[in-house]
TrEMBL record:
<dbReference type="InterPro" id="IPR001608">
    <property type="entry name" value="Ala_racemase_N"/>
</dbReference>
<protein>
    <recommendedName>
        <fullName>Alanine racemase</fullName>
        <ecNumber>5.1.1.1</ecNumber>
    </recommendedName>
</protein>
<comment type="pathway">
    <text>Amino-acid biosynthesis; D-alanine biosynthesis; D-alanine from L-alanine: step 1/1.</text>
</comment>
<keyword id="KW-0663">Pyridoxal phosphate</keyword>
<dbReference type="InterPro" id="IPR009006">
    <property type="entry name" value="Ala_racemase/Decarboxylase_C"/>
</dbReference>
<comment type="function">
    <text>Catalyzes the interconversion of L-alanine and D-alanine. May also act on other amino acids.</text>
</comment>
<feature type="binding site">
    <location>
        <position position="314"/>
    </location>
    <ligand>
        <name>substrate</name>
    </ligand>
</feature>
<keyword id="KW-0413">Isomerase</keyword>
<dbReference type="Pfam" id="PF01168">
    <property type="entry name" value="Ala_racemase_N"/>
</dbReference>
<dbReference type="InterPro" id="IPR000821">
    <property type="entry name" value="Ala_racemase"/>
</dbReference>
<dbReference type="InterPro" id="IPR029066">
    <property type="entry name" value="PLP-binding_barrel"/>
</dbReference>
<feature type="active site" description="Proton acceptor; specific for L-alanine">
    <location>
        <position position="266"/>
    </location>
</feature>
<feature type="active site" description="Proton acceptor; specific for D-alanine">
    <location>
        <position position="44"/>
    </location>
</feature>
<feature type="binding site">
    <location>
        <position position="138"/>
    </location>
    <ligand>
        <name>substrate</name>
    </ligand>
</feature>
<feature type="domain" description="Alanine racemase C-terminal">
    <location>
        <begin position="245"/>
        <end position="372"/>
    </location>
</feature>
<dbReference type="Pfam" id="PF00842">
    <property type="entry name" value="Ala_racemase_C"/>
</dbReference>
<feature type="modified residue" description="N6-(pyridoxal phosphate)lysine">
    <location>
        <position position="44"/>
    </location>
</feature>
Length: 379
């Protein structure tokens, strides 16, 4: 046996992140049912930390028709995995490897003239989605530059240098349906499509909604929704029961009995109020347990919630096990769907003062990953 093989982590003795693709399949099917048009499965950031290729395959099998990513590198990984579905990549530098667009057979978003010129030069004939800023001042062309971008794109299209197949926008406040930015964003998107049409463009894919707007605002649906968070059980709209695919477990490395008053961890931020047993969890902020959750987080031990005490450190956290005799090796559930009383991703986000997206995308590369397949659907 090689030295490496001796160190190979095993489930049960190593922190393990389990991804239930059945949950991804169910969430996809629900969102496909809600969307007026097609559903693009957004699998950026390694499928929101759930495994890009697994989430992509699962979502396509459950009714999504396309894939969306930020970079061309991510698009390349989808193609390398054998996925042939349409892919859109929407965040690339001006000097990206645009030739890959044709090699990979993917669509790209174009937010301005510089990108347009670069794509035409390096990838003549590319399929592009013109991207308009619908009110975030983040990505996409500013309204004052939109008509010019449309005219330039149409001129290139006439010369056979590209095909404008889509127009895309993105809403800033879709999780707050009464926010005036939603009406403004929808109106600006409609104006952008009309302006593109006036320039002679005929974009067949017109897409504005992400998860929140797909669930809350049918007027934003147009021909396609780009859905990411919802696939992995995050509901920014607060209206819909989605399934959470992740379970994180870890065995206690060690336990110790401490007297009342014993200080714990960096900075001595917690002292045992009574004599108790402490357990050492081999997980810390380098694995994605947010340090900001120190002093608030809980985990499930033998069916009971137990507090994480003291500061969460880089590789470790300490759990107050109380007096029920828990020993080293006991497998603790750090987070999961919540069905057995374990903390959820939503709770970890609340304890950390952040959103679920940041928690799931932060769960680190050191975790052993196991995948539960979705199984055949429609049976
Ligand atoms: C991430 C992203 C999405 C997906 O948003 P969710 O809220 O996660 O569904 C859609 N469009 C763009 C441009 C994005 O960056």
């Amino acid at each position: 046996m090689s030295a490496l093989a001796y160190a190979t982590p095993r489930t049960g003795s190593h922190p393990t992140l389990t991804v239930d693709l059945g949950a991804v399949a169910d969430n996809t099917a629900l969102l496909v049912g809600r969307a007026a048009g097609e559903v693009m499965a957004v699998v950026k950031a390694d499928g929101f930390g759930h495994g890009m290729v697994d989430v992509a395959r699962t979502a396509l099998a459950a009714g999504a028709t396309r894939l969306g990513v930020t970079s061309l590198e991510e698009a390349g990984r989808l193609r390398a995995a054998g996925l042939r579905a349409p892919v859109l990549s929407w965040l690339n530098p001006v000097d990206a490897d645009w030739a890959a667009v044709l090699e990979l057979g993917v669509d790209v978003a174009v937010p301005g003239r510089e990108h347009l010129d670069a794509v035409v030069r390096a990838a003549p004939g590319a399929r592009v989605h013109l991207q308009v800023d619908t009110g975030m001042a983040r990505d996409g062309a500013e309204p004052s530059r939109w008509a010019d971008l449309c005219r330039a794109a149409r001129a290139a299209e006439r010369r056979g240098l590209l095909r404008v197949v889509g127009v895309m926008g993105h809403l800033a406040c879709a999780d707050q349906p009464a926010h005036p930015a939603n009406v403004a964003g929808r109106d600006r998107f409609t104006w952008a499509v009309t302006t593109a049409g006036a320039a002679g463009l005929r974009p067949v894919d017109r897409h504005l909604a992400a998860t929140a707007a797909t669930l809350l605002d049918p007027r934003s649906h147009h021909t396609m929704s780009r859905v990411g968070a919802g696939l992995v059980g995050i509901d920014p709209s607060g209206t819909t029961a989605l399934r959470s695919p992740l379970t994180l477990t870890a065995p206690l490395v060690d336990v110790r009995d401490v007297p009342a008053g014993c200080p714990v961890g960096y900075g001595h931020t917690w002292r045992a109020p009574v004599a108790t047993r402490l357990g050492l969890l081999p997980l810390g902020y380098a694995d994605g347990l947010p340090r900001a959750a120190s002093g608030r987080a809980e985990v499930l031990v033998r069916g009971r919630r137990r507090p994480v005490v003291g500061r969460i450190s880089m590789d470790m956290a300490v759990v107050d096990l109380g007096a029920d005799g828990t020993g080293a090796g006991e497998v603790v559930t750090v987070l999961g769907p919540g069905n057995d009383g374990e903390p959820t991703v939503r709770e970890w986000a609340a304890w950390s003062g952040t959103i679920e997206h940041e928690v799931v995308t932060g769960l680190g590369a050191r975790l052993l990953r196991t995948v539960c397949p979705a199984g055949p659907r429609g049976l």
